Amino acid sequence: MEKYLPITDSKLYPIHEKIQTETRLSLEDGITLYETPDITGLGFLANIVRERKSGNLAYYNINQHIDYSNVCILHARCHFCAFARKNIETEGAWEMSVDEFLDKAVYSINNGCTEIHSVGGLHPKLPFEYYLEMLRGLKKRMPQVHLKFFTAVEIHHFSRIFKKSIKEILIELKAAGLDSIPGGGAEIFAEETRNKICPGKLSAEGWLDVHHQAHELGIPTNATMLYGHLETNEDRVDHLIRLREQQDKSNGFVTFIPLAFHPANTRMAYLSSTSGLTDLRNVAVARLMLDNFAHIKVYWIMTGLKVAQVALSFGADDIDGTVTEEKITHMAGASTPEAVSVEELTRLIREAGHIPIERDTNYNEIIREGNKWYRKKAA
Ligand code: V47
Questions:
Q1: Taking 90 as the threshold, does the pLDDT of residue 378 lie above it?
Q2: Is 72's C-beta closer than 6 angstroms to any atom of ligand 1?
Q3: Residue 154: what pLDDT?
Q4: 23 CA distance to ligand 1 centroid (A)?
Q5: Which residue is closest in CA terms to ligand 1's atom 8?
Q6: pLDDT grade for 189, boundaries at 50, 70 and 90
Q7: What distance in angstroms lies between residue 143's CA and the mean position of ligand 1's atoms?
Q8: CA 196 to CA 235: how far, in whole Å?
């Protein structure tokens, strides 16, 4: 019996051919994927690549986000941000002491968390020692836990205010315990749109350079793209291709995470939230364009758990983690919970037809025995 091909848009046939022969997709292919009305055909294509890379496994992790401060010198510049505050006197501003930060992290680590994800605004006054102490303090108390700290934009800021090169900053952070860098701050690389949504912020070239230098020093990093604001489909494909080119050069990106813009309490509050189909499309196109990325993560905090579950059949092989205490999206009106249980994540993954695997930040499987856990090295 001949097999039915679930594609209705004939423009997707040549792309299907390329995927079968593992041929790299072009900018034009990317635009076709963003424009096709055939969303199930798009999902079918993305799922081919997802299965080729991850089989029927879907990953999650037990992590905690701790945003040490939201004071930010760019508070008036990033039009998409509801998180930043001008200074500590401004309503809604906070600044944790190192001890407060360590207490919070240690509490979650004692409850089984394997990764601390910590970012903040571009603080004008905190000394470099503050950031080093956060890392050192945690590594000393909990050496097993992975520390994913500071976006490329923060690292560039440290370089500027502490008058050290990016390389020197990275070397010192690594020596203090930094294990990897999260993907934030990428926003959208296309200059014209970037200048509209975050004028004066670190450029695309600057963001990519920090990641390049981190990769050269053996520090793995993640990559993101903020979509659902003023960007065009061309901007989105351009962003993905620039990440793909960077990965060809330095091969240190671990995962890609598309981030759905949340407009509430921002200067772009006049825009609508993204739809479920836009979220799925961004996951699927990323899976297809980023042929040199091993993983695509759907960040349920931004898409909601329901869309995240469906995204596991649209190219994503990772649903992120328990998260706990997310602030950036919730201050911009996210209606998702601030944390989710492992039982709920694994139930959603199983129901989607995949095998849930608890992972660490670098996709090593986590094995738990009572209160203890260890890493099984990735094959
Ligand atoms: O850089 C800010 C984005 C990012 C809004 O690396 C917003 O594992 C939506 O990068 N609506 C921070 N997005 C989050 C981030 C991240 C999240 C999860 C995992 C990882 C990882 C990284 O959030 C910012 C910015 O691009 N953002 N404001 C908003 N209103």
A1: no
A2: no
A3: 98
A4: 31
A5: 182
A6: very high
A7: 26
A8: 13
d(CA 104, CA 82): 23
Query: Could you give the domains of the chain?
Result: 57-376 (3.20.20.70)
So what's the pLDDT on residue 44? 98
Cβ distance 239 to 247 under 8 Å?
A: no
Q: Which residue has the tokens 């006197």?
A: 89
Q: How far is the CA of 12 from the centre of ligand 1 (A)?
A: 31
Is the minimum distance from the CB of 332 to ligand 1 under 6 angstroms?
yes
Q: Are the beta carbons of 308 and 345 closer than 8 angstroms?
A: no
Q: What's CA 104's distance to the chain center, in Å?
A: 22
pLDDT score of 1 more than 70:
no
Closest by Cα among 95, 41, 61 to 297? 61
Nearest to 141 by CA among 181, 170, 96, 99: 99
254 and 295 Cβ atoms separated by less than 8 Å? yes
Residue 328 scores a pLDDT above 60 = yes
| CB of residue 184 inside a 6 A radius of ligand 1 | yes
Residue 367: burial class (beta carbons within 10 Å; 0-12, 13-18, 19+): exposed
In what helix (H) or strand (E) does residue 59 lie, and over which residues does it extend? strand 57-61
Q: Give φ, ψ of 16 to 5 degrees.
A: -60, -40
Distances (CA, A) of 131 to 46, 87, 102, 267: 40, 18, 12, 30
Report field, pTM of the whole predicted structure over 0.85 = yes
Please report the pLDDT score of residue 324 as a whole number: 77
Residue to mutate (ligand 1; options 154, 259, 295, 299; most atoms within 8 A of CB): 259
Residue found by looking up tokens 């990965």 in the block: 247
What is the distance in A from the centroid of ligand 1 to the CA of 67?
12
Q: CA 19, CA 24: separation in Å to the nearest integer?
A: 8
What pLDDT does residue 108 have?
86
Q: Which residues contact 43 (CB under 8 A, 6 or more apart)?
A: 280, 284, 313, 314, 315
Contact 169, 158 (CB under 8 A): yes
Task: Quick: pLDDT tens for 256-303.
Answer: 999 999 999 999 999 999 999 999 999 999 999 999 999 999 999 999
Average pLDDT along the chain: 96
